[in-house]
Design goal:
Elements (H helix, E strand, L loop, with lengths): L1 H8 L5 H4 L3 H56 L12 H4 L14 E3 L10 E3 L15
Antiparallel strand pairs: 1-2
């Protein structure tokens, strides 16, 4: 009898009224949306940073290729003698500035090369800027 009476006394409730109210549901959905947007922004920033690094490596490799051609032209004109510095390559590189990598640091020229049979080594310190670091670009 008591159970039947409770059923008769029940009113009609909307789903959001039974679970803590409409405001609570909206807060939960708002938090969920904020977390989704924050995660998406984090993903975009990660991708952008990685692409910036890759673009820098590509740009530095292109600069190294142009500078290698200038060094080879200098070696051909000076009977194999190495240039004293990269600034002496201006005539051969077609630029008045010292060649720099994508991060704004000057390239490194080592004459003679440390490897057997290499006349010179031309490299960039890479994104971290440490001389001879693990991410150097040759």
């Amino acid at each position: 009898m008591l159970r039947r009476r409770r059923l008769l006394e029940q009113d009609i409730f909307f789903p959001w009224e039974r679970r803590g109210g409409l405001r609570r549901r909206l807060r939960v959905h708002r938090l969920r949306r904020v977390l989704i947007v924050a995660g998406f922004l984090g993903l975009l920033i990660t991708i952008a940073v990685r692409e910036r690094r890759r673009a820098g490596v590509r740009q530095t490799r292109a600069t190294l290729l142009d500078t290698r051609q200038a060094v080879d032209a200098y070696l051909a004109d000076h009977q194999g003698g190495c240039p004293p510095s990269l600034s002496d390559l201006a005539k051969y590189a077609g630029s008045l500035q010292v060649p720099r990598d994508a991060w704004g640091r000057p390239l490194r020229l080592i004459c003679p090369g440390r490897r057997e049979g290499s006349r010179y080594e031309l490299m960039s310190d890479g994104p971290d800027g440490l001389p001879g670091g693990l991410d150097r670009i040759e």
